[in-house]
Automatic annotation (TrEMBL):
Organism encoding this protein: Muricoccus nepalensis
UniProt xrefs under Pfam families: PCuAC
Protein's name in the database: Copper chaperone PCu(A)C
Signal peptide range in chain numbering: 1-25
Transmembrane segments: none
Domain of life of the native organism: Bacteria
Amino acid sequence: MTIHRRALAGLVALGSLALSSPLRAQGTGVVVEQPWARAALQGGNGGAFLTLRNTGTAPDRLLSASSPLARTTEIHETVREGEVMRMRPVAAIEIPPGGSVTLRPGGAHVMMTGLSGPLRAGTTVPLTLTFERAGAVEVQVAVQAAGASAPAAGHHAH
Ligand SMILES: [Cu+2]
């Protein structure tokens, strides 16, 4: 009986450790596909778009983003208010296990504001995405022309 209790207590302790650990737990994983952004001017704002694929077995959530090029980086959604479309920050974007979510122009996106340098078409900018379970994932975002509406064909970021 005592042995059983100890084993159980050990399991409970392990369980809570796994929950609070910043390290990647088994069964988690988010793949970031086709990150891209529109060209933007120094001092201005730039939107970044990408597909988040959850290869894990539990839901995960994109909690925050950051880029060394931007003063602030937020996760935005686009909502209709009467006749106008407005952007507003969201706390998180949930990605179901085995599913994917695409951030695209006119929808949810990563908003980089106060750019310390221009986003030039043909270059890449680093972006770190932080997930509740998968932790921090750094990607290189391919900058396209200012009027682009989709990622360049054939471009895959790893
Ligand atoms: Cu925005």
